[in-house]
Request: fold
Amino acid sequence: MQKIETKRFRAEIDEHGCQLTHLVNKAGDFDYIWNNDLWPKHAPILFPAIGRSNDDAYLIDGKKYEMPQHGFVADFDFDVVDKQADQVTLSLKSNDATKKYYPFDFELKVTFSLTDDGLTVAFDVQNDGNTDLSYSLGYHPAFNVPINGEGSFDDYRLDLAPAQDSLDTYEIVKKPNPYRSGNVEKLPDYRNGVVELDHDMFAKGLLIIKNTGIKTVKLSSKATQHAVTVDVSDFDHVTLWTKEGANAPFLCIEPFNGLPDVYGDLAELSSKEDNQHLKANGTKKYQVKIELK
Reply:
């Protein structure tokens, strides 16, 4: 377990899956990140797939490869390549085990940087091969709601800025696992940039919002002075989720570059909708900035 800290905050990152497990407000002695067996994860990294693939697989030039939900990196140990008091960088390089799922040469580096304003998670994807690298990348942090136990889930709201007149989401169908139907619908209960939270809005599961200009998503309540603001400006979609039917006291705010499959036939990786692409020996950087109060 890797620990970093500043005067105000402390973070812990598990090398297995490169997963943020704790993000602690030291003065208040509380954790912003979810820790409970009701959903036994915390903040998984999604690569090189997001969501469900049909038959948990995909095609490369017609050849079938297995692909677990949200990709495979959550099941691999990352190496620590740089460590400072307030920052740590971890890396996963392709190997024989990753190539059973994804027959490409790559390196995924993730840098966690703490300041007295919050945490920045920076992703660096490198194509170490000589062909196009097609992939999805997402981040899946689960935040405790209520924050510091103050108020209840229904007391909280999301401010999506800058405000849009309306926002599109992708209709989800359960088969029984969640897939996209291929249809688009409006984000329910969205008004003037604000979504008032309640568990009923997640009855069908996740809400994948098409990002048409959203820069930040702020989680806050009048019941507390604390808040979490997630900068999603490097990503094409932002997903909201909590465990349906459980009245769970957490909310995932998830920036996505990539999408789950539309239910049906296996997809060719090279033409997967909203996938990212890197030329041979290319690199691409993304970051998620989490401002904390």
Q: What stands out?
A: The mean pLDDT is 95. The longest strand covers residues 106-115.
